[in-house]
Amino acid sequence: MRSSLVTLVVAVVLAGCATTPRPTIQTGPDAEVTVDGLHRVDNSIVAVGYMKPDIDLRGYTAIMLDPVTVAYQKDPQGRRSAIVAGASPGNFALTPSQMGNLKSAFQQAVVEAFAESDEYRIVDTPGPDVLRISADLIDLIVRIPTQTGAARSRAFVSSYGVVTLVVEVRDSESGEILARAADRMDPTRDTGNLVEVSTTFVRSDVRRLFGYWAGIMRERLDDLREVERDPGQ
User: What is the per-residue pLDDT across 190-229, written as a single tens digit (0 to 9) for each?
Assistant: First the structure.
């Protein structure tokens, strides 16, 4: 059943392409195992992926999304008056409105990614066929001032910032952890080159990154069928 593959984090963990080695779950005495029983996935498209070696999702047909949370890498600075071309000296705080928009943008990207399929449904209550998905945006660094103020001249930077996505999937009723994945990226559309700082450009690039992450979750679901236990572990 394709509906047995309804999970965000497993899709992220196991995403791959035809030109890369097939993802495999480490098993055996040398397997890298977390304290909560998840095994490392080799050849994952994301930076880090873990899942239960005996995971069986055939009974799940729906997902429940927890509200996304956001955490800075360190206490952000307040208002700053200038940008140094190519880099910002600190980590700037988002305004309450910007923080709300960031969370909403990620949630919307995930919902939109799954809305195109009749195979999967998103629900808001636990159930025996429901996987609970939590997504955290952590270690956020914002390299451009976010407070609005007096008009200033055009500014250019090489990076808006960077953020890590951590996704976990659990059984919605028991709370059993089934998989975990993490990936860290810079949303700047042309990393390494100077780009103009503008609300339109920043918003577009952030949404593009979120769409990319959500697209992996949705488009690579079938990769779960191809997972193999590593015979060498």
Answer: 666 777 777 888 889 999 999 998 877 766 544 543 444 4
Interatomic CA distance for residues 141 and 87, integer angstroms: 12
Read off the pLDDT of residues 13-67 as tens digits, 9 standing for 90 and up.
544 444 556 778 888 888 999 999 999 888 877 778 888 888 777 777 888 989 9
CB atoms within 10 A of CB 37: 14
- Tell me the CB-side half-sphere exposure of residue 202, using CA atoms within 13 A: 21
Instruction: Please report, as a single letter, which amino acid is at residue 119.
Output: E
Domain ranges of the chain: 2-229
Q: Amino acid letter at 151?
A: A
Q: How many CB atoms lie within 10 A of CB 158?
A: 17
Compute the distance between CA of residue 2 and CA of residue 4 in angstroms, rounded to an integer.
5
The Cα 202–Cα 196 span in angstroms is: 9
Burial of 193 (0-12, 13-18, 19+ CB in 10 A): exposed
Tell me, what amino acid is at 157?
V
What Rg value do the Cα atoms of the chain yield, rounded?
19
Contact criterion met (CB below 8 Å) for 126 and 140:
no
Q: pLDDT tens digits, residue range 74-110?
A: 777 654 444 444 444 568 888 899 999 999 999 999 8
C-alpha span between 156 and 197 (Å, rounded)? 6
Q: What is the pTM of this model?
A: 0.76
